[in-house]
Amino acid sequence: MDDILEIRNLNLYISKYQVLYDINLSLKKGILHALAGESGCGKTMTAMSVLRLLPKSASVKSGQILFKGDNLLNYKEHQMRNLRGNKIALIPQDPMTSLNPLYTIGNQLVEAIRAHSKVSERQALRKAREVLDLVKISDIDNKLKYYPHEFSGGMKQRIIIAMALACNAELIIADEPTTALDVTIQKQIMDLLDEIKKEFQTTILLISHDLALVSNYADYISIMYSGHIVEEAPAKDFFNKPIHPYSIALINSLPSRNPSLKLRTIEGAPPSLQENIAGCKFHPRCDFFRPGVCDAKEPRLIEKAIYHFSSCLIK
């Protein structure tokens, strides 16, 4: 399978501080690729780099972001506007604030469809009904007349997913799409994304800090720590046998892994942007730390098993 999205050696700075270090990421068509790690590790910055929706103080110093072979870093802003919401769609963290409160759902769906395709208002309205049906919203004719405040958080998230489907997005970036929702609704939204992936062969980049959720839906997983990807593997291999000490610590901290034991935590905190840590960024918190090795050389991703990469110098 060809890569629909490929990030190569991406280095990103916010002002004078580096936030992403040589990020390499490949997404195949029709798979759900999870990008996981603690808050502040660079997951969302990686995703927003693809959409070119970065703070004004951000700058890409080197690297490429290839969507179907085209380097998005070379695109003009009008080209990116045509791409966003059309070929690449975003499902943001907070569905409560992602829809315009002044317009009905029908108006917003029709506007999104007509912005990216040359169709009449009637044709756009027909398409809006089709995609609302796909995301399992009932009583569609009435719901098209509703304003966002008349929907629950889960229903709003379904409407945002419908917008992605309406424009036939080939890549959906789902940035913590279930964070603001309760557990039951979380499962419904993730089941819906899984159905979309399978039925339409849509590629999904899922940004998440919830490994329990990721384990149920991801085909492939990349683990980030302090702006680095420290482990990559097919999801089944990763959860069966994690290699990097950070990944092992993350999995060991899941309650489901230690149902009868005291919950294990990772001591310390991730480094701030201002901290200059020599060698592996994780070594101050690592149970496998070796002086003179881990703090002397910055590790790189190495294939430790088939399609299973880790950046640890020890394991």
Short summary of the structure?
With 315 residues, this protein is α/β, with parallel strands linked by helices.
Task: Looking at this protein, list some descriptive labels.
315 residues, alpha/beta, eight-stranded mixed sheet, four-stranded antiparallel sheet
Give a structural overview.
The protein has 315 residues and is of the alpha/beta class. It has a domain at 245-315. The chain is 31% helix and 24% strand. It contains ten helices and twelve strands. It has helices at 43-51, 77-83, 105-116, 121-134, 140-143, 153-166, 183-200, 211-217, 235-240, 245-252; strands spanning 3-14, 17-28, 32-36, 58-67, 70-71, 88-91, 171-175, 203-208, 220-225, 228-234, 302-305, 308-310. The protein has an eight-stranded mixed β-sheet with strand order 6-7-8-3-9-10-12-11, sandwiched between helices. The longest helix is centred in the middle third of the chain and has 18 residues, at 183-200. The radius of gyration is 21 Å and the shape is globular. The mean pLDDT is 92.
Distance between the terminal alpha carbons, to the nearest Å? 31 Å
Based on secondary structure, the structural category is: alpha/beta
- Count up the helices: 10
Which stretches of 5+ consecutive residues score pLDDT under 50? none
How are the elements arranged and paired?
Elements: E1 3-14, E2 17-28, E3 32-36, H1 43-51, E4 58-67, E5 70-71, H2 77-83, E6 88-91, H3 105-116, H4 121-134, H5 140-143, H6 153-166, E7 171-175, H7 183-200, E8 203-208, H8 211-217, E9 220-225, E10 228-234, H9 235-240, H10 245-252, E11 302-305, E12 308-310
Parallel strand pairs: 3-8, 3-9, 6-7, 7-8
Antiparallel strand pairs: 1-2, 1-4, 4-5, 9-10, 10-12, 11-12
Helix pairs in contact: 3-4, 3-6, 4-6, 6-7
